[in-house]
Amino acid sequence: MPVRFRAVLFCLCVLLLLSFAACSRKAESPRASDSAVSGAFMPAAVETDGIAAEKSAVAEGARVRRDASAAEASSGGNRIQPRPGLLTAGEWNDNAEYDFLLKLMQTNQEWRTFEQRWQMSLARRTQVKATAGNEPAVNAVAELLGKNGESLWAARTDNSGTAYVFAGFNKDRDAAEPATLRVTYNGSRVEKPYAAGQAYHIAFSGGKASAPALDLMFVVDTTGSMQDELDFLNAELVNVIDRVRRDNGNIPVRLSVNVYRDEGDEYVIRAAPFDRDLKNAQNFLSRQKADGGGDYEEAVEQALDDALNKHDWDMGARARLLFLVLDAPPHNTKAVAAEMRKLTAQAASMGIRIIPVASSGVDKDTEFLLRALAAASGGTYVFLTDDSGIGYAHLEPTIGPYDVEQLNNLLARLINGYLR
What is the DSSP letter of 167? Predict the structure, then answer.
C-alpha cells in the first residue's frame, strides 16, 4: 500500500475517533429531561425578555460549579453569588386541575400505592363558594358533618370565598358518610344536605370584611443537603416581600421563619415568632447553616406541629400562608403518617394554606405527600427545576404542562393571588 494512501487512511481514522468521542460526551451530559418519569409531561418553558440572558449567565456559572466542584475545597470555589431571580421553579395546583388528579389516581398504580402508604385520599372533594352581598365571604368556615352532627372535615374560605372540603381524607379513620354541609360566617349559619360531587354556592347577606393583612411563614429543612436552597432563599425573601407590600398598598405583613432537622442532630426545631420587623426574620435565616440529617427522612411532622400550634396565627388575616421548603419526607412510620394526616386536617380547619417548595432530592412518594398537603389545605405545589442550572438535579413532577418561572416571581405571584 503506498505510503501516501496509508497516511490519508490514518487521518480519516483519527477524525472518526474524535467525532465518536465528542458524541459520547454529548450523550452523557446531564439534561433536565433525564429526571423525567414515565407518564409525566414535559414542561412548556416560558421565557420573558430578560430571563434568557439571565439563564445563560446562570448556566455558565453552573457549569463552572459542577466542573470545578472537586477543586472548591482547595481554591475556595467559584459558586454563583445568591441573588433574586436565579432559581427557577414551576407550580401545579391540584384543586385547579382536579380532573387530572382524579385520572392520575385511577390509572397510575404507583400513585395508588402512595395513597395507601400515607392513607390520604383526595378522591371525594366538595367545592364551596361563599359570598357576602356582592363580595367573597373570606374566612367563612365550611364543615362536613356526620349524621350525628360530628365534624368530619373543616376548611376556611380564601380571598375568593372558596373552600375545599374532603370526605374520607383520612383513609385510616374517616369511615363515616357526610350528611350535611354547614357554612358559618360572622355568626350566620347555613346548612345544606350533603351530596357527593356537588358544588355549593352559599350566599350571606353581608358582614365584616377580613383584615387586609398577611401572615407569612417559611418552614425550612436545614439538613446538610439544603445549603444551596438556604443561601438562595435568604436572597429571595426580601425581594418577594418588598414586592408583595408594594403590590398590595403596603399591606401589614407578619413573617415567621422556622428551621428544622431531625432527631439526633444539633437541634430538631429552631423557631422564630411572627414579627412585623421583617429584618429580624431575615437575620434569623441568614444565621442558619445546613448540617446534619444523616438519613433521608427528617422531622417534618414535628416542624409542622410547631408551625401550627406554637405560633399566634392571625385568624382574621386575609391570608395565612405556610411555605414548606424541603428535599426529604418525614419518617415513614404509621405513627408519623397518622400525625401528618392530623396536621393536614388542622391546617385546613385553620385556613393555613400549605405551599410546599420541593427541592432537589424529592422522590415520587414525597411528591405525592406534598401535593396532598397542598390540595387538602387549599394551597398549591411548587417545585424547583433544572432550568437555572443551580444545585443538584430536580425530579420532574407527574403533572401536565406548566410554565417555568423565576422563583421570586412565582412566590410573589402566589402570595399576591391569595391577597387580591
Answer: T
